[in-house]
Amino acid sequence: xxxxxxxxxxxxxxxxxxxxxxxxxxxxxxxxxxxxxxxxxxxxxxxxxxxxxxxxxxxxxxxxxxxxxxxxxxxxxxxxxxxxxxxxxxxxxxxxxxxxxxxxxxxxxxxxxxxxxxxxxxxxxxxxxxxxxxxxxxxxxxxxxxxxxxxxxxxxxxxxxxxxxxxxxxxxxxxxxxxxxxxxxxxxxxxxxxxxxxxxxxxxxxxxxxxxxxxxxxxxxxxxxxxxxxxxxxxxxxxxxxxxxxxxxxxxxxxxxxxxxxxxxxxxxxxxxxxxxxxxxxxxxxxxxxxxxxxxxxxxxxxxxxxxxxxxxxxxxxxxxxxxxxxxxxx
Length: 331
What we know:
Elements (H helix, E strand, L loop, with lengths): L1 H27 L12 H34 L5 H37 L2 H38 L7 H13 L4 H9 L3 H26 L1 H28 L4 H29 L4 H23 L2 H21 L1
Helix pairs in contact: 2-7, 3-4, 3-5, 3-6, 3-8, 4-5, 4-9, 4-10, 5-8, 6-8, 7-8, 9-10
């Protein structure tokens, strides 16, 4: 039951997030002492000034995550409406986790350039990552819109819980705000909490303000639209304006290019998904898995080839040619 699942989560965190990490650190760095040091007065002062902003960066997303469900229940729209909204949001967030992981790794790499003031390297990193993130966002959106109904029906055993309107509005930010997602994690990892907090609070306020009137008339789809509007305005507009001023980097031309890449990836992968889905069918997990595998291979390889820099193309071609030369010599 739920208790077993909860304990599984706890044990997984203890074993994999702490146990393996600490064991590996001790093996690699035997002289490393993991012990907290008492902060100085200046460090406490700096932490106190930033703490209010960091508190908002953690509180606002929690409110943004939980408020829609509480609002739907408070309006008497519980049951199927709440389940529909939670299922669709869980599915979309699962797909968007790939973008989050890429953005987090990029934030780790680019954060030192923020402190050194190397704006050229920040812009270069954001450009390289932004195009990939946009393409992945477009592919993910197409996959959800094309196969979402089959996934939810197989997942829940019910076909009446799928709602295209809810799914559509939850997917829209994956395309529109794709260029800005790396900025969010760069701000977090480069110790720029003020701009991040303002953006996330704006997102929460807009979403909750719109969700209340829209939920009563449109149910889960109305709440999904409110969430999309909050994210597009705050993360897509407010946060980039604040961060580009703070970092001194150019952004908007790059953002427009990324949105166009995301739309192109959406159209291409959506068309491929329709053809593959029609050819293989999606009835049952076996067919769906085969369909998704074929769709992913046909969709992603051309996109990766187009987005890959010329130097990477040459490197891969040289590696492939060297492989075949070695095979012939061995034969």
